[in-house]
Amino acid sequence: MSLNQNFSLNRMERYLSIAWDSGARPVIVLTKADLCEDLAQAVSQVEAISCFSDILTLSMFDEVICDKFAPYFAKGQTCAFIGSSGVGKSTFINCLLGAQVISTQEIGKGDKGRHTTTGREMFPCPLGGVVIDTPGMREMGAESADLSQPFGEIGDLARRCRFRDCTHTNEPGCAVLAAVEQGRLDQRRLESYRKLEHESSYDGLSSKEVEVKKAERMFKEVGGIKQARRFAKEHYQRKQGKFPGGGM
In degrees rounded to 5, what are phi and psi of residue 165? Predict the structure, then answer.
């Protein structure tokens, strides 16, 4: 993840959750450090959600890029780079390979990355093992994710909730909500956890089942699908100048 407008703690939590679920060992690479106004603060924020993952900070002006990556490469080791378009994945892989093997582009307007890599490519790495370059991601779903590692503190709190099936939304005796109220847990972090938990619950479902589950969750606050349909019907009748019960 780059340390400019691409910086997003929510996105990093998503990447970590998917990486842990895959069985890989996540290593966080923060690029474009030279463009960051407050590097110490940014690194501190990432450390707070890193679940003890190693964190590397890099810029295009570094002369020791290979040295920083060297501990993660060895014979029989596979390293894959994932991240948004334009964060520098291909550029740093070229540094590791010692040649301009992968084409790169200048950053787009509005600091948005451009898709240069269009497919996954694997290369033998001079440091040992192989390295995989992947296309830049605009979005990354989390239908399969391991939240126990990147959100360990929420799991610890959840074990103290009054109810075993607590959703940490409005239940009495919720230790997670209490931690938010007391300032011991960031509200942003809880919302990120909820979103990823919802997405991960779709694992193994067909596309139709996923849409049904999304609709049920969407309309839960208004009493379910039937209630939502009734509200929609009444809204339509109001727009037509009619009201339930036949009045005008």
Answer: -95, 30
